[in-house]
Amino acid sequence: MSDGHRSVRRTDYQPPAFLIERVELHFDLDPKATIVRSRLAVRRNPAHADRAAPLRLDGEALTLLRAALDGEEISGNRAIEQDGALVISGVPDAGVVEIENRIAPDANTELSGLYVSRGNYFTQCEAEGFRRITYFPDRPDVMARFTTTITADRAHCPVLLCNGNLAATEDLGGGRHRATWDDPHPKPSYLFALVAGDLVAVRDRFTTRSGRPVALAIWVRRGDEDACGHAMQSLKKAMAWDEAVFGFEYDLEQFNIAAVADFNMGAMENKGLNVFNSKYVLARPETATDADYQAIESVIAHEYFHNWTGNRITCRDWFQLSLKEGLTVFRDQQFTMDQGSAAVKRLRDVRRLRAAQFPEDDGPLAHPVRPDSYIAIDNFYTPTVYEKGAEVVRMMHTLIGPAGFRRGMDLYVARHDNQAVTIEDFVRALSDGSGVDLSRFLDWYAQAGTPELTAEDSYDAVARRYTLTLRQRTKPTPGEAEKRPLPIPVAMGLIGPDGRDIAARMLLLNDAEQRFEFAEVPAPPTPSLLRGFSAPVKLKGVARDRLRFLAAHDADPFVRWDSGYQYATGIMLDMIGAHQRGETLALDAGLEGAMAATLAGADADPAFAAEALSLPSEAFIADQMDTIDVDAIHAVREFLRGALGRRLVAALRAAYARLSDGGPYRIDGASIGRRALRNASLGYLAAAGAEGVALARRQFDGATNMTDVQAALEVLAATDTADREAALRAFHGRWRADGLVLDKWFAIQATSARTQAVEDVRGLYRHPDFDLRNPNRVRALVGAFASANQVRFHAASGAGYRFLADAIIALDPMNGQAAARLTNPFAAWRRHDAGRAALMREQMQRILGVAGLSRFTFEKVTTVLGA
Ligand code: 0A1
Ligand code: ZN
Fold first, then answer.
1. Which of 539, 514, 560 is nearest to 450 (CA)?
2. Residue 277 · residue 263 · CB < 8 Å
3. d(Cα 423, Cα 419) in Å, to the nearest integer?
4. pLDDT of residue 62
5. Could you tell me if residue 465 is left (phi over 0), alpha (psi between -120 and 50 degrees) or otherwise beta?
6. Does residue 431 have its Cβ closer than 6 Å to ligand 1?
7. Fewer CB in a 10 Å sphere around the end CB: N or C, the chain?
8. Which of 265, 281, 333 to mutate to test the pocket of ligand 1 (most atoms within 8 A of CB)?
């Protein structure tokens, strides 16, 4: 690509010219001028073709103070800075390189490398942040043993943390002190971490199943100690689960987690020292919602699970990112399914895949799970690499079963522990371990786009034979016109007229079209396809009467839920057509009946019922339309919510009253389910009229947990009432000192569908509590508005687009990665009407016109524009 931004291609991979056996790092911490000294024991890599190749040390935003080789200063043109690296020639087959450089953590607004957040030091090195700390071969296939000493003022930095085990501490006099950390496990530089400052620890212990004690600590700012209990419990559960299910034990004496308020992503799996966005650590009933509690549990587990899938065995190069991410997301999903309701977890994960990954696969940003090229790898931490990658692992797991998968994972570790490997290595280990050839699944990693699956069937009553024909087709994606058929596991059953299963089977669709026969079928069955969502595909064309039958009868909870969802989607699309033709809208009796039945049977599984009651999102409906009509989608969904609320008012009222638990707040699955159903009922009642809004006001005033407060405030924020203003004011007054709660205050207003939302959001952008340097705050206001308030972001005036572009342009010079991530809502621009598409294109061109635009934002916007 142009503009001086080079792209990296997967097929250009070369092994490194040098390996690093040991690294000794010294940090002298100072916010304006931190001195980093490193001593690298380097050795020529026999796997590299050129025996005379120079040593390449990546570096970015560093001031070089000294470079020496085997004790002698490197002078003249033996060391040159070129293309973001220090290139040293004439290095012998083995030698010691010493580097001294300076960095300014205080000025690091990118939050990549070493930075200061509220007076404390943190690092973020994935993907390419270590090169912003010191000169180093900053690539995952260089795995080295690190020893690190940190020197700092004891008063400012009483706590000095790094990877591995604490080896020594020393008082240096004059208010200075030092800690030495030794990490016995070889690791790539992206897993390096340093945390220093005035933090306090919440401690616990874990004994591994072979009896080794591990000291656990969660490091937070003073005053947050009481908010770490859930994170700690989650950590211990994750540690025990990984031992029980995979035989993976923790491998250091200490496991530290540090929470930071300024962080680009969710959390980071640095060896022995995970760094977390505080959003995924801190929780109190009065400040965190049930969804927050659940997210904490799964993110804690995810990062912990990386210790084996990612850290012990890492990626050869960044194109293999899904090797660790897809696999680790799969593992954290399995963990959560084992903790409580597997069915609800599964359908939520599918909802999420459909909300974020399917649209990505269907637009200009489509890329294979293993991409082929990038300008900035940081742009590829995507739903495709993570969530679709997890689905690909899940399909293989489904085919070989848990025991086969376990044998495959055992072999993966036996072969590749302490190595940097490829996705082929992983699939080969699963194949060899299970005895099932999975090599065709590599195509799932190589080909972008979501396959569409259709079925056709017939029943021969005389022969008692049922025939099912399955077909798959994948639409072209940018740069890939022809698509190959993929192996698609279709878990399925045949349901008899009485609603009971006649047969249950796992089919594997290998070709574009395949026929499957079923003998001895006593009556014409209804096929139940894709049970448990056995493949990340779009199942199309199931007739409405069948959807209703499946929604009512299927033994598989996923198909039961999904059939209701697909049924509602079809109804809504029809209604959108009617609305566009100017017809009056009417409530479909089938939909009303299904919702009434769900409410009537809700007490059996309130969490599942709450999911079944929630209509497909506006974004999901948009994804089903050739030309998106945001106003019609919004009008239809609001009409339905109001109509259902009025028709079912008695049942909703009863549910709301029955589910009110006056007791103490508990976060077990049953209590969470009851709150979810109660708040779903509240939402419908409020859509129906004033009674619900009054209930919301009462709930807002009386609730003591954030789940109920937030649900009520969401209802009020969408209205134009005095209650809205009063509640928002009260909320802000109570929580203005708690950043995470204040994020909710911003997000609730940003996602409110009231007509003035764009002006609201512009006003909030100027609010004294808005801070462009805090990624959580940016996501809460700008991100939430643009990605979760479809109807107002896409206001026909273009005001939403201008707002987003203004924010991206303001943020890009400070934090290019965060700015680039904000561009996603523009991705579907060609799917909107010509007027909106032109307005979006205009804003993207304005962004591209900015001088010095970061490579992150440049890559995203040029890809979206197709330039
Ligand atoms: N490996 C982390 C994700 C992550 C990626 C980049 C980061 O900084 C820009 C931070 C975290 C995970 O999967 O949780
Ligand atoms: Zn991860």
1. 539
2. yes
3. 13
4. 98
5. beta
6. no
7. C
8. 265
